[in-house]
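FORM 12-B: Structure-to-Sequence Request
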């Protein structure tokens, strides 16, 4: 008999008062009994609507069936037939708009906690199994992968399993892409990402960090070096700014820079020398996952007050609902229907050597209301005349989006991009306009999701294999 409880099993979490002061993971995961109880809520639907909601079509009812039976390793094997990063996706996938949005249990109650079960299964496997992979019989072909985010790691792994000699070239000093430099430890512990990278290395993948393609080497030079194909998974790391007065003041960061300093350059450690402003009042501009991550990171670094400043209302906030709720529980204040018009700075005209000159003191903000829907159907925010006010802050973090960096396109012959800077590819194969070069993930779509980047890496790996064996 299925478990007909309308509500899903709650995810145990750290107390908000305690977690807002540490970087340990917020969500603690299901134990075995809770996982089985949650799995029993699944009706094993014949038409599997949930599977259609998963960008990589994980066979959800089949893996949940194995959880019900307590055969967690078999559940893991089913998931990894189509997904290479289940411990990551189980944590950060926007499940509520993907697989779980289609779950029939959601019609009269809460959907099955598919993401939570996926996370449980992956964590169980990681705890109970050794790194036990066998490198495939090598073939003579070499593939270069640019970027070590989820798209690059997935493409590299799939090709290595087929015997290709794969080298990943990563600009930063650590592999993992946004999974290590963007998403904070309290949402995605870095040991999980490291485990994926160790698996790739065990498969024979070589990872060259501190190598910027387009500067250290060009894509054309990779072919000269003997690579037979190239996959570009360089992400969308170029931050956008609002172009308002004061954005060049000391104390204004892009979210990417701020999070990189804290995550990758370890500014969260008490004894760290990494320069980043800690404490005081912090305003984060934007309403996506990146904004929530930056705000909650600032809080954990000791900020007295952290504000989210977003120009639309709560209903339009693009961040995952769970992250918004966690941020609110931790005490982040939301200034909704508010838009910055100027960042204000300190100026002592009597003493140009005053070190406070040019530092942020506040943000001029205007109130907004929602007008007519735009071309995407979202109601357009419109300024309310004469409604400006000043928010007193010491740090401003801009989290209003990113786009792909043009460096690779500018240094590669024959590679075409679209108006938003994304590399143009065939949807079916990931093939670019240049022979032998494939691309996927945020470098193609602009900022998107881990699972879509992973799916693109898989598609390209399959197409590269076909290209090199034809
Ligand atoms: P990336 O992960 O960006 O990796 C690209 C890699 O390429 C980087 O390591 C970069 O250093 C490297 N690189 C760039 N240029 C070069 C070059 N010229 N030469 C060599 N290497 C280069 N998605 C979700 O699904 N759920 C979430 O909760 C979520 N939260 C997020 C929070 C933050 C703070 C951010 C920034 C993003 C978040 N995302 C989330 C989005 C998700 O992380 C990305 O969509 C995904 O990582 C894209 O993968 P990718 O492989 O295309 O690129
Ligand atoms: Fe759902 Fe994401 Fe897992 Fe697919 S990968 S089943 S969308 S949590
Ligand atoms: Fe189970 Fe929901 Fe999928 Fe049906 S839709 S198989 S109940 S997870």
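FORM 12-B RESPONSE
SEQUENCE OUT:
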């Amino acid at each position: 008999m299925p478990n007909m409880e309308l509500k899903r099993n709650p995810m145990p979490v750290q107390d908000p008062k305690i977690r807002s002061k540490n970087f340990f993971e917020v969500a603690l995961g299901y134990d075995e009994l809770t996982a089985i109880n949650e799995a029993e809520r699944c009706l094993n639907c014949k038409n599997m609507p949930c599977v259609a909601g998963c960008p990589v079509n994980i066979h959800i009812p089949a893996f949940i069936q194995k959880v019900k039976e307590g055969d967690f390793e078999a559940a893991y094997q089913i998931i990894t037939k189509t997904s290479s990063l289940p411990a990551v996706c189980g944590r950060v996938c926007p499940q509520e708009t993907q697989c779980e949005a289609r779950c029939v249990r959601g019609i009269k109650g809460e959907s099955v906690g598919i993401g939570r079960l996926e996370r449980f299964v992956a964590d169980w496997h990681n705890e109970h199994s050794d790194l036990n992979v066998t490198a495939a019989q090598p073939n003579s072909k070499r593939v270069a992968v640019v970027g070590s985010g989820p798209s690059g790691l997935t493409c590299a792994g799939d090709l290595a399993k087929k015997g290709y000699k794969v080298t990943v070239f990563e600009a930063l000093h650590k592999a993992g892409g946004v999974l290590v430099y963007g998403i904070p430890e309290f949402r995605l512990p870095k040991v999980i990402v490291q485990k994926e990278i160790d698996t790739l290395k065990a498969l024979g993948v070589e990872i060259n960090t501190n190598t910027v393609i387009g500067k250290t080497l060009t894509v054309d030079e990779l072919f000269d070096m003997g690579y037979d194909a190239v996959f570009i998974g360089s992400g969308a790391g170029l931050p956008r700014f609002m172009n308002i007065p004061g954005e060049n003041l000391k104390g204004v960061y892009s979210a990417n820079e701020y999070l990189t300093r804290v995550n990758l350059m370890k500014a969260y450690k008490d004894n760290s020398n990494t320069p980043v402003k800690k404490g005081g009042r912090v305003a984060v501009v934007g309403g996506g996952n990146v904004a929530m991550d930056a705000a909650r990171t600032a809080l954990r670094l000791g900020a007295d007050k952290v504000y989210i400043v977003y120009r639309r209302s709560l209903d339009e906030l693009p961040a995952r609902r769970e992250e918004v709720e966690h941020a609110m529980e931790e005490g982040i204040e939301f200034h909704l229907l508010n838009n910055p018009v100027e960042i204000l700075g300190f100026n002592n005209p009597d003493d140009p050597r005053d070190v406070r000159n040019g530092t942020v003191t506040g943000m001029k903000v205007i109130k907004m209301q929602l007008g007519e829907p735009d071309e995407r159907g979202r109601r357009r925010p419109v300024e309310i005349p004469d409604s400006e006010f000043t928010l007193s802050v010491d740090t401003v973090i801009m989290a209003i989006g990113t786009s792909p960096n043009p460096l690779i396109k500018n240094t590669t012959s024959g590679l075409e991009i679209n108006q938003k800077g994304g590399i143009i590819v065939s949807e079916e194969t990931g093939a670019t306009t240049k022979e032998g070069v494939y691309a996927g993930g945020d470098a193609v779509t602009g900022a998107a999701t881990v699972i879509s980047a992973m799916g693109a890496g898989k598609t390209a790996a399959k197409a590269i294999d076909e290209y090199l064996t034809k």
